[in-house]
Amino acid sequence: MLKFDIPINTQVQQFWHWWTHELLSMVPPAVQKLFGGGAEYLVMERDDNGVAISHLKGTVERPLTHFALDESGNQTRQSYLRKHPELAELKLILRLSELQGLRKQIKLPMAAEENLQQVVSFELDRITPFKSEQVYFKTVIVDRLKATRQIVVELMLTPRTKLDTVLDDLAASGWRPGQVHLSGDAKPGRYNLLPERFTPPQSQLPKIINTLLAVSITTLATLAIALPIWAVRSESIRLQTETRKTAKIAQEVESMREESEKLLHQARFLQDKKRQEPVLVDTLEELSRVIPDGTWLNGLQFANRKAIIQGQSPSASSLIQQIETSTFFKNVSFVSPVTKDTSNGLERFQIAGDVINGRFSEKPQ
């Protein structure tokens, strides 16, 4: 994720180091050595009698031997490397002692990160006893303090006269280290104090292959982005052509669908009307079924889905319950008081109720 409080060039460098490290981790050790990778080094330390050589692999360092800086020491070195040819392929590192260099941590504003080497060069005489032209120095950012918007920088330096003398002595005896760092660094490669004029010639093959790999990856990434877009565009054009061909058919289908819905609506309207409207013949038949024997009707009125019946019955009060058991009537009730006919002992009644289409009504549970 892009961090806006870190300069873009720093983030690009971090990405490059991560990418090259990941690439090297996926190839055989022999290829890693070809590209300057791997985690094995020959570490040399200068002393009064010559140079001490040790083998560094990861974080494990193993002392090997000691060579004098004279003709005999040069012959001994060549003989030793012929016996151990695997060591001749390792990168040579010169480690300076604590008396040969200086290490110090300083804090600087985050804005200094973009031109860190130049800023430290200006401030060197203030934070160390040396001027910038007197020393070789390198800087490494070890922390970022967002609260105070500062960076913690580790400064490593060595006097030019001391390092030049050591490197000249080594070169005279056939030693050409590829890196120079101070004692106390467990992992080489964070920085390099080696002056440019002492840098051994390097093969251009890794740089060429890395460039070709970068171009290939860029090309593949471009194709990976462009090809799906082109395929989608082609498919879109084809679908648009098919859509134009079927547009007329779709319009006809839509018109037929609307006409079908209109006819269906009309049919449902007639069906609903038929279900809702009661049939007079069915109503009369149902009345003759639910009215018990001994009950006589003197009158029947039917209008606006409502029926009113008049008559005489031995028990008019039970008629309400009997009529409401029918699926053709609801809301049945007396519309006038029940009276008794003294001539025959029957009860006169007048009952009204709503008439429904009993063929489609729900059966009482």
Write a structural description.
This protein has 365 residues and is an alpha+beta fold. It folds into 3 domains: 32 residues; 161 residues, 2-Layer Sandwich (Nucleotidyltransferase, domain 5), CATH 3.30.420.380; 76 residues, 2-Layer Sandwich (Gyrase A, domain 2). It has 9 helices and 13 strands. The strands form 3 sheets. A 5-stranded mixed sheet has the order 3-2-1-4-8, covered by helices on one side. Strands 9, 10, 11, 12 and 13 form a 5-stranded antiparallel sheet that branches. The protein has a 3-stranded antiparallel sheet with strand order 5-7-6. The chain starts with 7 loop residues before the first helix and ends in a 10-residue tail after the last strand.
| CATH class division of the largest domain | Alpha Beta
Largest sheet: 5 strands, mixed
What proportion of the residues form beta strands (DSSP E)? 25-35%
Oligomeric state: single chain
What is the straight-line distance between the termini?
71 Å
Mean pLDDT: 81
**SSE succession:** HHEEEHHEEHEEHEHHEEHEEE
Question: Structural class, from helix and strand content?
Answer: alpha+beta
